[in-house]
Design a protein that fits this description.
heterodimer, A: mainly alpha, 3 helices, 55% helix, 0% strand, B: mainly alpha, 5 helices
């Protein structure tokens, strides 16, 4: 299970709107090989890892990937 | 120049990573390990500046928890590295301490915070990070 922290991983200060950049970011985040897809794969495939290191690593990396989406939006 | 094969060789020979960036330098680059960091052309990492006390405390919290998370990922693969475990615990303790101080002054970051002992429900009242809160 996960904990939510009410803060961003890195500060955001958007001065100008950039629609093209926003579209690119969304494809990177939500596309077929995007971070969201990767995070879900990590978090669902960790159950079948043969050793502890694999389980721990996939859990931690998947958690971090999920946490990052907060600063995409 | 970043060379992952060198890194793997060192690992096999039992040489542990000895050099690490400080939390602040690591946070600016997004990477705590100088041997794994490869700068993009001549890009210089952006110098974050905190202007008021809230930003300063939040920046410190971000840096220390970033460093502790990077060491977390390293320790997943090297669970027996004692010096890194000691460093990880040092950062973890400091991050918890800063988080408590921040929450006492500026409201909750985690739902388990002691600062939620007030009416109305502060978790919902304070601005969310995606609306500009907790900057």
């Amino acid at each position: 299970m996960w904990a939510y922290e009410k803060r961003l991983q890195y500060p955001v200060n958007i001065k100008n709107k950039d629609l093209r950049m926003a579209k690119i970011l969304v494809t990177q985040y939500g596309g077929a090989n995007g971070e969201l897809a990767a995070a879900l794969r990590y978090l669902n495939q960790r159950y079948t890892m043969p050793d502890n290191r694999g389980k721990a690593l996939l859990t931690d990396i998947g958690t971090e990937e999920l946490g990052r989406h907060r600063y995409h939006f | 120049m970043y060379n992952y094969n060198d890194f793997l060789e060192k690992e096999k020979n039992g040489d542990r990573i000895m050099s690490l960036y400080s939390p602040r330098e690591g946070y600016m680059r997004g990477n705590l390990f100088p041997e794994l960091y490869d700068a993009y052309k001549n890009y210089k990492p952006f110098m974050l500046r905190a202007n008021d006390e809230q930003s300063k405390m939040l920046l410190e919290l971000s840096e220390i928890s970033f460093a502790s998370h990077e060491l977390n990922l390293y320790l997943d693969l090297h669970p027996t590295d004692n010096s890194v475990i000691a460093l990880f615990n040092d950062y973890r303790r400091k991050a918890n301490q800063i988080m408590n101080e921040y929450e006492n002054k500026f409201g909750p970051i985690s739902i388990d915070s002691d600062s939620l002992n007030v009416t109305p429900f502060l978790w919902e009242e304070e601005a969310w990070p995606f609306e500009g809160g907790n900057k």
